[in-house]
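Comment thread on ticket #2218

A.B. wrote:
> Attaching the input chain for the structure job we discussed in standup.
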Amino acid sequence: MSQAKRRPFTLDELRAYLVEIFPQIWARGDYSIEEVGPMSATVRLNYHPNHLRPGGTISGPSMFALCDLALYIAILHEIGRVELAVTTNVSINFLRRPEPSDLIGRAKLMKLGKRLAVGEVALYSPGDADMVAHATGTYSIPARRGEAPDGAPAKAAAFAGRHA
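C.D. wrote:
> Ran it. Output below, let me know if you need it in another format.
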């Protein structure tokens, strides 16, 4: 019988870590983490009139930010305390006009490597089965301490550099 992989964070620890490294994101209460799971995260954009664009719908930048944040949370839940994992690419397709209400972002990691993570996010209005938007994204993951940029242990890389 296989055991579930131990994650670096509980949900509460992850929430606390994100407040520590990005207090500006959480200060107004725009976002809440609904759940995290293996290679996944569900994040809510809490409705606020500031998220609206002309025409009374949730703005594209608000939806983009939700997608980016949901991917980041899914990645951190898998790899732990890595502040400098950064977005390298996001592509978003806006599928239908969301109502002026909360939005739910369901992120799923498709590949998690040593240096890159690739995932997708589906955005939904609560209670609606049809997607509002779909995004795919790639994150760059920095080398960990004691690891060379190519993923080799730093000691081996130093040896190879001296004897090249």
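A.B. wrote:
> Thanks. Noting for the ticket: Strands lie at 31-37, 40-45, 52-53, 57-58, 86-94, 103-112, 116-124, 131-140.
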